[in-house]
Amino acid sequence: MAVFVLDKRKKPLMPCSEKRARQLLERGRAVVHRMYPFTIRLRDRVGGALQPLEVRIDPGSKSTGVAVVRKDAETDTVLHLAQIDHRGAKIRKDLQARAAFRRRRRGANLRYRAPRFDNRRRSDGWLAPSLQHRVDTTVSDVAKLRRLAPVASIAQELVRFDMQALETPEISGVEYQQGALAGYEVREYLLEKWGRCCAYCGAEGVPLQVEHIRARALGGSNRVSNLTLACGPCNQAKGAQPVEVFLARDPARLARLLAQAKRPLRDAAAVNSTRWALKTALEARFGPVRVFSGGRTKWNRSRLGVPKSHAIDAACVGEVEALRGWDAPTLVLRCTGRGSHCRTRLDRFGFPRGVLTRSKTAFGFRTGDMVRAEVPAGARAGAHVGRVAIRATGSFNIQTAAGVVQGVSHRHCRLLQRGDGYGYSFLARSA
Question: Domains in the chain, ordered, with CATH?
Fold first, then answer.
């Protein structure tokens, strides 16, 4: 795993190896600038030779993959892999709770508060807060990487499905749509549409084959609305039969299959909505962004023989001939937020059940800071590294990778990195 390097004036230099970073720290030529991602700052150097790096992004619904890649003549070298775990579901749940509290206040015997629905203005491109959160956190992480490395370009998986290739399979004029990639676009869309299971028996976790609902022998077309996924035995058993005959004994499944087959392509457009907003936000802040489809990403990953993960998918975005360094550990950034401005806790009815301390700092620490606690003796003896939850009494809780360690004195804690709204951990090396 590469280590980010800054010069004496905090300008980004080329990342170095872990061994080189360790030597610079031991010789006193560098100091630790940041723990996650690990960054050192040189004390005796200003400027240096740079190579252009590229940040590649694979947006997802719950997690987004980010990779920093150095493009050479024939091989792309992965320098940094990260996975951002979003908290859109938590934001949606909080907003629903807030709406319930306001609804109750309007209906209770309290001061009347009229609902506000006709005086709100939403700008063009408005997204729900749970979706806007994904855009904001991804843009924030890209900005952080640009401060730590000489990033020259950004590549993003813009759309998961290529609409034109799906609507018109026989389209000509675009080279990749006439080659092997068109099949990946169709298959990826079918996997999403049919829930990655057999449409005829519901089998999951088995190899699935692309199947014509109305067989070609009966005049069926290659349009995506006539395609589904079936396991091998069901595909063999159906053959060229009409689907009404094959599923005559299961009318409920037949009705669901026909209804699912008629779902329009706007479902795929809904999957892509956040990615368009992300592209717009990235271009507004950092300039042009190169965009590619999800079918190309999957094609690259299958051709290169690398395992699937959010971060590795990001490294496979775009035009990739060969890839090395993909087996580096993946840094997981879990979005936790920076706390709440509300100074009370609420019960399930919306009533306050306690008052929080007014001061957010205790003994120089704040909740969310990364600390290292070395407890010399007792039931909690040992070294503990993680995010701290403070108390005014000085007895802290530390959230480590193994669990929560409670009742650690502030005297044993040493600050590693100020809280920035994220929790950090590492995924194991990919097999």
Answer: 1-50 (no CATH), 55-111+127-183+254-333 (3.30.420), 344-419 (2.30.30)
